[in-house]
Amino acid sequence: MLRLVDVNTFYGPSHVLQNLSLEVEKGEIVCLLGANAAGKTTTMKTIFGLTRASSGSINFDGQAIERKLTGDIVKSGLALVPEARRIFPRMSVRENLEMGAFTRSNKNEIAEDMDHVCQIFPRLRERLKQLAGTMSGGEQQMLAMGRAIMSRPKMICMDEPSMGLSPKLVETVFDTILRIRSEGMTIFLVEQNASMALSLADRGYVLQTGKIVLTDTAKNLLTNDLVRQAYLGG
Ligand code: ATP
């Protein structure tokens, strides 16, 4: 469903993504693991055209997207849950969710999806009128996920959804990812929390200084020596 082939991304002279290739098949949860500054967020930004690849191809759902505008990529069915949530703090929870449906116009469908999101996250239903910036970190993460679901995507990309959350909330977020997948969603997950990510992913890639150095099933990665030493604390 999503395929990157030999993608190179630079920030000025700094060559951040180096011939990066990866793919996510329909219905899979695939995780991208990597230490600080490995290039995980840059991979997400490159997929969404927020940073341009200087070469390589990015294909989503049968279409080349490497030259498309971010809004058009989202319209084609790819949603992003960005790093550090990036909700709209001065807008209400309801308005944030409505923003997620900006690519759509059918009001009845949008209302149905709002209801669906509130079923997944009852906390959001209780707080629809609250200003998003006054929600707790965990609630904001739920809102960011809910906003992505509001675009009725075919696939969701999540950049470190566990960042800054308590262990209990991390579990809630990961349970939600499994729930979304059970409804048929394809998910690409970028995480530093390798043990949690591998416990729910089907496959994973390991990114080191902008290069994929390893890919395997999540089960095999959990017992791989390099992964254990570098990402699972030995
Ligand atoms: P973290 O887990 O710490 O967020 P990451 O794997 O997501 O790390 P990136 O944010 O993709 O890493 O950054 C990869 C490298 O690119 C880093 O060395 C970073 O300093 C550099 N970088 C990121 N954004 C820019 C930018 N806009 N201009 C210049 N360098 C950048």
TrEMBL record:
The lineage of its organism: Bacteria, Bacillati, Chloroflexota, Ktedonobacteria, Ktedonobacterales. InterPro entries: AAA+_ATPase, ABC_branched_ATPase_LivF/BraG, ABC_transporter-like_ATP-bd, ABC_transporter-like_CS, BCAA_Transport_ATP-bd_LivF, P-loop_NTPase. It comes from the Bacteria. Residues 2-234 form the ABC transporter domain. Transmembrane segments: none annotated. One of its GO terms (molecular function) is ATP binding. The gene is braG. Keywords: Amino-acid transport, ATP-binding, Nucleotide-binding, Transport. GO terms for biological process: L-amino acid transport. This is ABC transporter ATP-binding protein. Pfam families: ABC_tran. Belongs to the ABC transporter superfamily. Signal peptide: none annotated.
